[in-house]
Design a protein that fits this description.
Length: 182
Amino acid sequence: MLVLGDSLSAEYGLARGTGWVALLAQRMARDGLHAAVVNASISGETTSGGRARLPALLQAHHPTVVIIELGANDALRGLPLTMTEANLKAMVVDAQRAGAKVVVVGMAVPPNYGRRYADDFMALFGQVARAEHAALVPFLLHGVADVPDARALFQADGLHPRAEAHPRILANVWPVLRPLLR
């Protein structure tokens, strides 16, 4: 399994082994699902960067499942949604052509980007997943960023969840991922 993500998956600001990807590897081992979990996530990664890196990662690791958790940094930089969508589609197609099942992980942006941009951004993950027949986690930070006391679940920067939030993040991914592991 390959996780291609940004700082949310790369354990930014966390002790190693406390992020959702590490918790996923532990969960799989506990459930007797013996598969290597390669975390190829990089803080600050955009969909363009992920798209450029993915072919070599597919060739090196031959994953049966690829989780694509990218797009947040595109939005933070105000990049065109058409570019983000095209990059996500290309990554899904490349991973599927390499024989992997794909999970697209959705994200949201803060409301200061404007309602239309925020709505269109969040919708594009589902559009890509449906168009390319990939699995979808609608919102990685559901139950973390959209709760009344959300601030307490984030590091001082207000962007990166604290270690306490990562089990909840895994709980968002696991029900979508689990059926693909059969």
